[in-house]
Structure formats: structure tokens, C-alpha cells
Design brief:
This protein is of the alpha/beta class. The protein has helices at residues 28-36, 44-47, 65-69, 84-101, 135-142, 153-162, and strands at 4-8, 39-42, 57-59, 75-77, 103-108, 119-121, 129-131, 146-149. It holds the Pfam family 2-thiour_desulf.
Length: 164
């Protein structure tokens, strides 16, 4: 099927976020895509072995997922632990799943150091945000997968309709 969508598991209602919660996205398209068999659900962090719940993590120094992939930045937990290798593995797992299942699109939760595509947190653990992408979103985009945040679901609906 064309138009498969890799989707953040938390958006589908799975309690996989760092705080042990879900962040379900209520939109008529979600149920339609589910019925059509278009959704491929994944939590990149869990695919790399991270537990739920887990300490919050951010990309250090106001950097981005592209910087992490290029080796110029780290992903750290609030505890100070370096999770860079784990987040890179999570991104690689997501890309592999997307490619194996034919996903041309991804619908990811914004703000996440993995999945953020519009904004991420600045690494200060103060709640400050900046525009940028998480590690998984950056790798998927690099591979040519169209990435949309949860706030852009209507744009994804339009893109899918235009691709028919």
C-alpha cells in the first residue's frame, strides 16, 4: 500500500513517553488510516531499550538532531547521563522500520529529542524550546521520508490526498 505512515506510539495512545503517559492525538484521519492499515506504530526510545518511565532527556547546548547525527552534540538525561548512542540507535531503528514497511511519511510528537520536527527543548531542562528536529526526525528526513508533527496532521492529510 502506498502512503504508509510511521507514527509515534504515544500519539496512538500507548503510554511510552518518558513520564509513563501517552499523548493521544484525536483526529478523524487517525481512525481512517488505522482501518486502512496505513499506520506503523513505534516508539524509537523503547525500540532502543529505554524504560518507561525514564528521566527526561534533551539535546544539550541548544543543538539539534542533525548536530547529534553529525557528532557535534549529545543527548543527555537530566541526571547527566549521556544517551547519545541510545538515541542514535533509536533513530536507526525507526528508519529501518520505516523502510522495511514502506513508510513514505512519519507523524511524530513534537518536542521530543527523538521525534520533534518543529521544536525541541534546548537542553537546559528549564522548559525552554527552540525550533529544530530531534534525532529520529532528522534521520528520517535525511532519508527522504516526509515528517509531520502532531500539530501538522492536516498538512499530512493534504499530502496524502495529493499523492493519490
Amino acid at each position: 500500500m502506498t502512503g504508509k505512515i510511521l507514527v509515534s506510539a504515544c500519539l496512538i495512545g500507548h503510554a511510552v513517553r518518558y513520564d509513563g503517559r501517552a499523548k493521544p492525538l484525536a483526529h478523524p484521519a487517525i481512525e481512517r488510516w488505522r482501518a486502512e492499515g496505513r499506520l506503523v506504530t513505534m516508539c524509537p526510545e523503547m525500540s532502543a531499550g529505554m524504560p518507561v518511565p525514564r528521566p527526561p532527556a534533551e539535546i544539550a547546548g541548544g543543538a539539534s538532531g542533525e548536530d547529534v547525527l553529525a557528532g557535534r552534540a549529545r543527548v543527555v538525561e537530566i541526571t547527566g547521563d549521556d544517551l547519545t548512542a541510545t538515541f542514535r540507535q533509536a533513530a536507526e531503528n525507526a528508519l529501518r522500520l520505516a523502510q522495511e514497511t514502506g513508510c513514505a511519511y512519519a507523524l511524530l510528537i513534537d518536542g521530543s529529542p527523538s521525534c520533534g520536527s518543529g521544536f525541541i527543548y534546548d537542553g537546559s531542562f528549564s522548559g525552554a524550546q527552540h525550533s529544530g528536529r530531534g534525532v529520529t526526525a532528522a534521520l528520517l528526513m535525511r532519508a527522504g521520508i516526509q515528517v509531520f508533527s502532531d500539530r501538522e496532521i492536516d498538512r499530512l492529510v493534504e499530502s496524502l490526498a495529493a499523492a493519490v
